[in-house]
Write a structure and sequence with these properties.
6 helices, alpha+beta, Ribosomal Protein S5, domain 2, 253 residues
């Protein structure tokens, strides 16, 4: 170690290096204040995505402040899926730094790198087409731009890790939505299949229960058909029996 009363001017290059490495490993340093940072906010990001893209699903996340090289920063992300978003071979990526959109040099940016490396299939995205918008906002007292043009963000490890964590957090919520949606679609498909057999099932039961009385059989058939329809239609949101008959071209006679 170093003597506590040693003057800074007398430190050798080796001692300075050891001191810097020790500071890097010290975990009790107070992080720099993030009070000066101006975030967009998850509510506004989600609202904006819904307003512009009219998606089937949208979610936004504002992460807690972090720091790199003594500079505080906050990462915010938003994901919009489905709806009016046009399908493409790559997700639509929106990049912002301190609320300013980054238009050029998209694929040389750390944001694009993280989005490209994400295993989206793990989060419920199927096929080779993406009907998805990914928005990332980096807010910091010092944005690590790659060049003086300020159009792309450099690959700083702490920032890259935080962008990835933010995207994973939002993507998990999207996966939950997609899982529930596909489960509902499978359930609806099963119920629609059952609907096809309602007339035949009702007719068979009515013959069995009417003892050959045609008038009684028709009455029982209609009553049973209506009850079965009501039971299934609660989950399918069909308006009435006539809509159901029209859907399957069932003769109401």
């Amino acid at each position: 170690g170093l003597r506590g009363n040693k003057k800074v001017k007398s430190l050798t290059e080796e001692e300075i290096t050891r001191l810097v490495e020790a500071f890097k490993k010290f975990e009790d340093l107070r992080p720099p204040s993030a009070d000066s940072l101006s975030v967009i906010g998850s509510d506004l990001i989600e609202l904006g995505l819904k307003k512009i893209y009219n998606p089937e699903f949208a979610v936004a996340v504002t992460r807690r402040p972090k720091s790199y090289q003594g500079h505080p920063f906050v990462v915010e992300v938003g994901i919009a899926y489905g709806g009016n978003i046009q399908a493409s071979e790559e997700p639509i990526v929106l990049r912002y730094a301190n609320k300013i959109p980054l238009i050029y040099d998209e694929k040389s940016d750390v944001i694009w790198k993280v989005v490209e490396e994400m295993d989206w299939k793990r989060y419920g995205i199927e096929g080779e087409q993406y009907q998805m918008v990914v928005m990332v906002h980096l807010c910091s007292t010092k944005i690590p731009y790659k060049s003086a043009g300020k159009e792309s963000i450099a690959e700083v490890e702490d920032i890259e890790k935080e962008i990835r964590n933010a995207l994973m957090e939002a993507a998990r919520k999207m996966k939950q939505f997609l899982t529930e949606k596909r489960k509902e679609e499978e359930e609806k498909k099963k119920l629609l299949t059952y609907l096809k057999y309602i007339p035949e099932v009702s007719r068979s039961f009515s013959i069995f229960m009417s003892d050959g009385n045609r008038e009684a059989a028709l009455k029982i058939q209609n009553e049973l058909e209506n009850e079965l329809f009501k039971l299934i239609s609660r989950k399918l949101n069909l308006i009435n029996i006539e809509e159901y008959r029209k859907l399957y071209r069932v003769d109401s006679e």
